[in-house]
Design brief:
about 550 residues, mainly beta, Immunoglobulin-like, 3 domains, 7-stranded mixed sheet, 6-stranded antiparallel sheet
């Protein structure tokens, strides 16, 4: 399967396919920046992905993003939401512990003391591609608080399910089911503790396993070649705090120790099962599991993510049924941080049976080559293209496609839509007209009968409804007779004929004459009309008039 072109040719500075949707926050407008991308990476603190340096503003001389990258607007091609303040503060109620299931957690609305009050929280993820870390999930996260004194502890939860607040009950619920939220196997907690001197000496990594929170790693951190950045010897996890006053992207300033940011190679320290859906930053009394948890910010962190695209390819008018056959195409792209399985694709309006086919994507991200079987899974950065057809009873049709995939713990969906418009086929009618005369006995006298004939041709590419021929003679302004032809398919030719006994003869000058029969002229006019089908507006199509002239005596 080909890589989507959106993953090619990017520099390390801009993560490809950032994963971060606008946070759906429950009443309290919790916040974070969440993104997922693909870029080269070797280690956490100097990988060129992100500036882990104890401040929030991007340095043009240093490769990588910083929190200011996502504020106040999100760069094109990313899914970062920006940095949003905690507008409705909330604090954990006493007795709510990390060791408890989420269903037992309680909180109250209101602010914590300044040293425990988190003002902003943020996280961003990247999927590495460099040898040794290819496919690893690198997550950078942080928070800033109103004040800082003494030793500080911050915890960062990563949940597999999308967890939201219910401020009416002061509990947490599963966003997909609205049932009480619960832990999922593999939920992770990263707890840091640091001193007022800025030193980050250790970090504890916990996992929810077999319905209990277990210590997965107790990692010692030491100073690195970057001032203020502390990492483990393997450079899989780091922490940093500001040593002096800094300015946040929002324009606010914070004093030493109020800002913290960290980074972790989730794959190396937690495992490959990292399709997280929610993120929570907490202030704590210590980095241990029995610590009192205080203020928190909660928001979406959809690490696993996919995108589906859709464009109109071709349209073909079906004259036999007065419908349009539209062909659409697009791609399903895994632009998240984990593999996707159980892919499916549905279209509204539904694809015609047997027309949906899948293809490897070519260099331009379009279906290429021969059809293939829909893959059972999509690796990070992989894509699969599709092409399908549907029939529309209107010339223009709004079309929406929905792709679904499984992350192992939840189902992801992505939609794309477009309006396909077909080209109206040509339409037109033409008639031919001939006439001749017979002398017939009428009421004991010799009279003239005009015989007329001709054909009607549908010259367009659409079936015309209720075609008729309007026959006028003797200079009449309205139809003397109407000949019904019926529906006519494109290209159809239908003959017509009739006769009448004229009551008026004309001469070559167009005036009536009865005194010189040899100069008698009979003029006969025909014009065809039909109706376009409803799909083309149901309007009338009219041919040009054709006139036939018959003389009583040959000149």
């Amino acid at each position: 399967m080909n890589q989507s072109p959106m993953f090619e040719g990017r520099k390390a500075r801009r993560p490809l396919g950032h994963l971060c949707r606008r946070l759906v926050h429950a009443v309290a407008a919790p916040l974070l920046v969440a993104a997922i991308g693909v870029s080269p990476a070797w280690a956490i603190h100097d990988d060129g992905l992100f500036e882990l340096d104890g401040n929030a503003l991007s340095d043009a001389s240093v490769p990588g993003d910083d929190w200011s990258t996502f504020y106040p607007t999100v760069p094109p091609g990313t899914r970062a939401t920006g940095i949003i303040a905690d507008t409705v503060p909330a604090v954990f109620r006493g007795g709510s512990k990390d060791t408890d299931d989420i269903s037992n957690w309680r909180y109250d609305l209101g602010a914590s003391p300044p040293k425990d009050d988190i003002v902003h929280a943020y996280a961003v993820g990247y999927s590495a591609t460099a040898p040794g870390t290819a496919g690893d999930l690198m997550v950078f996260f942080g928070a800033d608080r109103k004040a800082f004194s003494g030793t500080a502890s911050l915890g960062f939860w990563f949940f597999k399910q999308q967890i939201v607040r219910n401020d009416a009950t002061h509990r947490f619920v599963n966003a997909a089911t609205n049932a009480p939220a619960t832990h999922t196997e593999g939920d992770a907690l990263v707890a840091f503790e640091y001193t007022n001197g800025g030193a980050v000496t250790g970090v504890r990594v916990y996992k929810w396993h077999n319905n209990a929170l277990v210590l997965d790693a107790n990692v010692g951190l030491a100073a690195t070649d970057k001032v203020g950045v502390f990492c483990d010897p393997s450079d899989h996890i780091c922490g940093s705090t500001n040593s002096g006053q800094i300015t946040l992207p929002t324009g606010e300033t914070v004093e030493a120790g109020q800002f913290f940011e960290g980074g972790i190679n989730i794959s190396k320290l937690v495992g490959q099962d990292y399709c997280f859906a929610s993120f929570m930053a907490t202030s704590r009394s210590s980095d241990t599991t029995n610590a009192s948890v205080k203020n928190f910010l909660l928001g979406n962190f959809p690490v696993c993510h996919m995108t589906v695209t859709k464009t109109c390819d071709t349209s073909e008018y079906q004259a036999a049924s007065d419908t349009v056959l539209f062909t659409v195409k697009g791609a399903i792209v895994n632009d998240g941080g984990g593999p996707l399985t159980n892919l499916s694709l549905v279209d509204s309006p539904a694809f015609n049976a047997g027309t949906l086919q899948y293809y490897a994507c070519d260099a331009g991200g379009q279906p290429g080559g021969s059809p293939i079987t829909l893959p059972g899974s999509l690796a990070v950065g992989a894509s699969v293209c599709y092409r399908g057809k549907y029939t529309s009873s209107t010339l223009s049709k709004y079309d929406e496609v929905t792709a679904s995939a499984n992350t192992g713990f939840s189902t992801l969906t992505a939609t794309a839509h477009t309006t396909c418009t077909g080209t109206a086929p040509s339409s037109g009618l033409s008639v031919t007209k001939n006439c001749d005369l017979d002398l017939v006995q009428q009421s004991g006298q010799l009279g003239v009968k005009v015989n007329f004939s001709g054909s009607v041709t549908n010259e367009g590419g659409v079936t015309l409804k209720n075609v008729s021929v309007c026959e006028t003679h003797e200079g009449a302004s309205t139809c003397n007779a109407t000949i019904n032809v019926g529906d006519m398919a494109p290209g159809a030719v239908v003959p017509y004929s009739g006769s009448y006994m004229p009551s008026l003869a004309l001469n070559s000058g167009g005036t009536s004459t009865l005194t010189e029969p040899k100069n008698a002229v009979f003029k006969d006019l025909a014009k065809a009309t039909g109706t376009l089908p409803a799909i083309l507006g149901g309007t009338t199509v009219t041919s040009s008039s054709k006139e036939a002239t018959c003389t009583l005596c040959a000149p």
